[in-house]
């Protein structure tokens, strides 16, 4: 289907932070999943209509903001199954006493159902691309394909489950990878759960299939201490010395990185998924995002999983990211609104190496777009669109979501999914999982 979006306030996100944002009121034309034009010139509209008028869906976006879809850079979507199950705990007791025992009792069907619920939540909130690290990643991929969302699926491993990881990774890489909406990376859990041998084996798969890496890195002080005791170096140095950074690496958290670590990350092209709310909830600390950005490190935003957040709301995450940097640095100018919105869109795309495909509104880009209704009282009056969205925007303001040219949310309702049935299926699975733990 070809689409013409008329009369929108367009936030193209093609300008880097510090440049004029280039907002305009105009139209965007979509054909074959790509943006054909984005313009305030009526002649561009007329030209598009002449070319595609026989098969054209028109959307009147008068009064709405049109911007690129949000990129959630780090997630464990199926952990909707554990939303509210393990709250108010530090990371290691949270993992060892609650999360890992629970995960030991769930199967692929549980993960598929949990992922469908997480994806539904993300789509309704304007997320069009997400990066997911989890077990049974083939079932997460299945849920993503069913929904129509763009996904980077990262089969996870720790030392004790490497063989199952390799089977899943090979299957995804050989049969399902890079189909346009779905791509694959390896997902070593963390430096403290993955030995040099398993990491080196996983990098052989990166080499064979041309894959990148997604890893938790320098999340807590406990991790720093454990890795230094075992290997005599920081987690960043540990992964560098194993050759991980020879492959495109997206690192989640990076809370406890010093100047030497950040210089290594900059030099090696490591990109970062910042997860402020999860880091706050688990009391992991505050990532030095403003410093990373000053050094030229590409940083985007993620929610982490819905067990450590507890939602998948990128609007809350943007607001928190900005305010947290201001508080941590003592500088109210740190991480201003436009830069934060850029991180959640074009910056996230750059962190994935997808900036030539998604994250901005320009001819030739894939049509991953959202319409936001700014008429709610919490967004009025509106002096600056980026400030309004970052400091006041909510997931419930998202009206329409388009991924690869397909409308997946219209009028705040999912087009492919029966949300009530999705919730019912998850709650049914929860009853069975809890019964297994008794």
List keywords for this structure.
438 residues, alpha/beta, Urease, subunit C, domain 1, TIM Barrel, 2 domains, 9-stranded mixed sheet, 8-stranded parallel sheet
Question: How would you characterize the overall build of this protein?
Answer:
By secondary structure, the chain is α/β, with parallel strands linked by helices. The chain has two domains: 116 residues, Roll (Urease, subunit C, domain 1); 282 residues, TIM Barrel (Alpha-Beta Barrel). The chain is built from 16 helices and 17 strands. The strands form two sheets. Strands 1, 2, 3, 4, 5, 14, 15, 16 and 17 form a nine-stranded mixed beta sheet that branches. An eight-stranded parallel beta sheet has the order 6-7-8-9-10-11-12-13. The longest helix has 19 residues. It is globular and about 65 Å long. It starts with a strand and ends with a helix. The model has no long low-confidence stretch (mean pLDDT 96).
Straight-line distance between termini: 51 Å
Q: Under the CATH scheme, which architecture of the largest domain would be assigned?
A: Alpha-Beta Barrel
**Amount of beta strand:** 15-25%
- The CATH H-level superfamily of the largest domain is Metal-dependent hydrolases
- The oligomeric state is single chain
CATH topology of the largest domain: TIM Barrel
What value does the Rg take, in angstroms?
21 Å
Number of separate domains: 2
Structural class: alpha/beta
Total number of beta strands = 17
Uncertain segments? none
Query: Quick check: average pLDDT?
Result: 96
Level of helix content?
A: 40-55%
In the CATH hierarchy, what is the class of the largest domain? Alpha Beta
Shape: globular
Tell me the major beta sheet. Answer: 9 strands, mixed
Can you count the helices?
16
């Amino acid at each position: 289907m070809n689409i013409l979006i008329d009369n929108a306030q367009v936030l193209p996100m093609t300008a880097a932070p510090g440049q004029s944002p280039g907002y305009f009121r105009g139209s965007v034309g979509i054909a074959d999943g790509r943006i054909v034009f984005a313009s305030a010139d009526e002649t561009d509209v007329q030209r598009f209509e002449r070319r595609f008028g026989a098969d054209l869906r028109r959307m009147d976006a008068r009064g709405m903001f049109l911007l690129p879809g949000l990129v959630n850079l780090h997630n464990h979507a199926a952990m909707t199954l554990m939303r509210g199950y393990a709250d108010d705990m530090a990371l290691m007791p949270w993992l060892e006493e609650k999360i890992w025992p629970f995960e030991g009792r769930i199967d692929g069907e549980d993960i598929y159902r949990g992922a469908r619920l997480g994806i539904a939540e993300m789509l309704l909130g304007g997320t069009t691309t997400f990066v997911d690290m989890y077990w049974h990643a083939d079932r997460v991929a299945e849920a993503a394909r069913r929904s129509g969302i763009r996904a980077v699926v990262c089969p996870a491993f720790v030392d004790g489950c490497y063989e199952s990881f390799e089977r899943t990774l090979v299957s995804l890489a050989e049969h399902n990878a890079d189909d346009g909406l779905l791509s694959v990376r390896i997902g070593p859990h963390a430096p403290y759960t993955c030995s040099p041998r398993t990491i080196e084996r996983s990098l052989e798969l990166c080499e064979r299939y041309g894959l990148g890496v997604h890893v938790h890195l320098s999340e807590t002080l406990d991790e720093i201490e454990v890795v230094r005791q075992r290997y005599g170096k920081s987690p960043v140095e540990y992964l560098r010395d194993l050759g991980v950074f020879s492959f495109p690496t997206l690192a989640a958290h990076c809370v406890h990185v010093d100047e030497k670590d950040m210089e290594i990350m900059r030099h090696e092209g490591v990109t970062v998924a910042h997860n402020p709310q999860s880091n706050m909830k688990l009391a992991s600390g505050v990532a030095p995002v403003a410093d990373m950005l000053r050094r030229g490190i590409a940083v985007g935003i993620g929610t982490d999983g819905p067990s450590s957040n507890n939602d998948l709301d990128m609007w809350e995450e943007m607001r928190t990211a900005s305010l947290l940097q201001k508080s941590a640095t003592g500088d109210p100018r740190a991480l201003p609104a436009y830069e934060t919105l850029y991180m959640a869109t074009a910056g996230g795309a750059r962190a994935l190496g997808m900036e030539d495909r998604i994250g901005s509104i320009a001819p030739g880009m894939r049509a991953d777009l959202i319409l936001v209704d700014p008429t709610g009282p919490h967004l009025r009056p509106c002096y600056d669109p980026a400030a309004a969205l970052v400091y006041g925007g909510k997931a419930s303001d998202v009206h329409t979501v388009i991924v690869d040219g397909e409308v997946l949310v219209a009028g705040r309702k999912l087009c492919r999914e029966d949300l009530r049935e999705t919730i019912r299926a998850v709650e049914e699975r929860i009853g069975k999982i809890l019964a297994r733990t008794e």
